[in-house]
Amino acid sequence: xxxxxxxxxxxxxxxxxxxxxxxxxxxxxxxxxxxxxxxxxxxxxxxxxxxxxxxxxxxxxxxxxxxxxxxxxxxxxxxxxxxxxxxxxxxxxxxxxxxxx
Length: 101
Known about the structure:
Layout: H1 2-5, E1 11-13, H2 19-27, E2 32-37, E3 45-48, E4 51-54, E5 57-66, E6 69-74, E7 78-83, H3 84-91, E8 97-100
Antiparallel strand pairs: 1-8, 2-5, 2-8, 3-4, 5-6, 6-7
């Protein structure tokens, strides 16, 4: 994702970032593409011909914070506020993220 993103602007791989570090990106007004699960449901793993992977894989843009809520721009469900704990459950399955600078 970073290699592709750099064709269009400045991005930084922040995979492995903690939730606190992602919130730091937002406080600097840098949105973050995060890899989560569809509907922020419990991660579900399946075995495929290429190996083990999430079957409910999804990516969203994290672009705001207000108290214990994060603002998500979701290609499936649009833009909405989500409790931070629910986001964390899905994000913590892999800790993959790309900060847009």
